[in-house]
Design a protein that fits this description.
The chain has 158 residues and is mostly helical. It has 5 helices and no strands. 75% of the residues lie in helices and 0% in strands. Bound molecules: fe (ii) ion. The site of fe (ii) ion has 2 residues, from loops.
Length: 158
């Protein structure tokens, strides 16, 4: 098998693949949670939230593909089962809970903010091992979450 000869040591690539696997797992949980809310939201603003959640899980789904393919580009195999995603995720699921639309927005906001804070640490790890490619990649991903967090925050602000 050909090793990726891209100027990063096997140790470094392994470390970054581990970081990206955690990011991927969190994205998967957040995507599923957003889709859960797309399906289960109720109330007079149903149509608005149903559509908003669809836009958001679709965007996260595209990011999931990018993260998984970056793991492959660094020479790793990507985790790809629900069992592995749940094991590696830092976000928590809340099965069987169907909160109000406002609480759904608040829960998603909390999760996006958690992802942003985790990404800051993940970006630091990339910086420590001079993986500028993944550092740039995760910085752009973090900026997307910052924008989504702002939109969610604005939705429930008075
Ligand atoms: Fe749908």
């Amino acid at each position: 098998m050909n090793e990726a000869n891209i100027g990063l040591s096997p140790d470094t690539r392994q470390k970054i693949i581990s970081v990206l696997s955690n990011v991927l797992a969190d994205q998967y949980v957040l995507c599923t949670k957003t889709r859960n809310y797309h399906w289960n939201v109720t109330g007079e603003d149903f149509a608005q939230y149903h559509k908003l959640f669809e836009e958001q899980y679709s965007a996260i789904d595209e990011d999931i593909d990018e993260v998984a393919e970056r793991i492959r580009a660094l020479g790793g195999k990507t985790i790809a089962t629900l069992t592995e995603f749940l094991k590696s995720a830092r976000l928590k699921e809340h099965a069987g809970e169907f909160p109000s639309a406002k609480t759904m927005i608040g829960n998603l906001l909390t999760d996006h903010e958690t992802v942003i804070r985790n990404l800051r640490n993940d970006i630091e790890i990339c910086d420590d091992v001079d993986d500028v490619g993944t550092e740039d990649f995760l910085t752009q991903l973090m900026e997307k979450h910052e924008k989504t967090a702002w939109m969610l925050r604005a939705t429930i602000e008075n």
